[in-house]
Amino acid sequence: MKKITKLLWVTGLVMVLTGCFGNDDQQNTQVDVTTNEPQEAQTDSDEATDVDTIKTIEPAFGGTLRIASYAPKTFDPIRNDQQSVIQVLGLIYEPLFVLDETLMPIPVLVDTYSFENEGATLIIKLKDNVLFHNGVQLTSTDVAYTINKIKDSDITGYKNQVKTIKNTTLVDALTLKIYFEQGYAFALSDLTFPIISRQYVSSAEYDEMHPIGTGPYRFVNYQQMQNFDLTAYLDWHGDGPYIENIKGVIMNDSQAMETLFDQKLIDIMNPSKFNWLKYSSNEEQNITSYTSSYYDFIGFNFDRPLFLDKETRQAFAYAVNREFILYDRFINHGKMVNAPIIPGSWYATEHEPYYKYDLDLAKRLVESKYVDFDGDGFFDYADEAKQTSIELTMLVNKENSLRVHTADIIKKDFEALGFKINLDIAEPTQYYEKVVNGEFDLLYGGWKMSQVPDFGSLFSSNGQQNHIRYRSETMDQLINSITYAYTMDQLKASVNNFEAYMIEEVPYISLYFLDGAVMSGKNVYGTIHPNTEWMFHGIENLYLDF
Length: 546
Hints:
Blueprint: H1 2-7, E1 62-70, H2 83-92, E2 97-99, E3 105-107, E4 110-116, E5 121-126, H3 140-152, E6 165-170, E7 175-180, H4 187-190, H5 198-201, E8 217-223, E9 227-232, E10 243-251, H6 254-262, E11 268-269, H7 276-279, E12 285-300, H8 310-319, H9 322-330, E13 334-336, H10 359-366, E14 391-397, H11 401-417, E15 420-426, H12 428-437, E16 442-448, H13 455-459, H14 473-483, H15 488-505, E17 508-521, E18 524-525, E19 543-544
Parallel strand pairs: 1-10, 14-15, 14-16
Antiparallel strand pairs: 2-3, 4-5, 5-7, 6-7, 8-9, 9-10, 11-17, 12-16, 12-17, 13-17, 18-19
């Protein structure tokens, strides 16, 4: 742990010049992954008339960073299913690879790796200086043991990440081979699960509430329903960290995190849904933003004859003023997209947002298809005798208040096109039932996209989450080409073709990916690089004014 060794003698050293630091106000975070703007020094205009003051904090080892978490049901990283606890366990445990801001896999415990057999065999050599927190060296046996443990577990969030692994073989203490069912471009991205110690987990001393990993922080204690403590692991193989201790404050609900932060009882937070309207102009905090994995869309029910017409779907897409929604609801903290492809990811395409707001073009696409017989401004059914308007129901989840308010904007956009819209704002249980049963014409919803995107689940003919009942042999083939790509170039080409077909077909109106943010107090310095999966990526670069 080179950084701590160099800094122990200056523990607590703080160099102070008079003044105050300005605040980082930027876009792009996973709130629910990345642009980081540099901090700029600012001085209050009134005070500056007397003297220009700047406070400089030099990096030094020490201090305690306070974070919030739900009460852990377990600290077993394989069995844990609590998102806030996953963030904590990422400080204690490490994976073979971690994803950077572009979702590119970066080696953590791996020294070298190579592929054979067209990507179906991965050879990994581990770093030789990695110790678990009990002093036992990491070996290839621990990696193989972790993979098998996940495969055998009925309760784990990492099951999908090992489903393509057939088996492993040990070459030596630091080397192993991982055999996949086939070459797979996301093979390294799947190897981001925490590696556990076979020696510890299989011993009589194992305690699931006392985690032992290889990460920059080791577990100290947990006071049930109150707090837990971590401290820097001095034999960590990495360079850092500066922050000596981390104290976890137990919260009871998601609203408590913001309350704790506002009251300065915690120093850093990453809410799953970031309130840009509340915090974007607050100069008491630093904001590190990133493009999140939260994707909003409007889906068409393909069981409705109206939406089997492609030009009608395209007209609806042009009619939605996404630019206004992003500005009005999120102060432009989001990115318009053509498909559920996380912007800024290494496999993202270079396509510009296609269906930009154009009501005139939208009307031209449908003016020869539908007629307003009674002159009330809405298209009517073809039976002139009835002269009843085409009424469409848009289903919205009542639990998401921001989406409910946005739905009213979208309703007005669609009605300006000429279609009467009824909002069905349903309670969560009813909402999910109606989604599954197809009880909607238009579905306003959102997905948290995985770090390894599963487009097949959403759009393939037999996809588990294809609630819009979309069927297309061409789409099935495009999704298969993504699934079976085993080089990065193949994958990028396949994703490009998928997005082009999404633009043409419009099974969804892709709205945007929202920006997320990690917020920290003014006592926290340095730069982190959060992404859609882990808020503490780069924590070794943070330091405190203590």
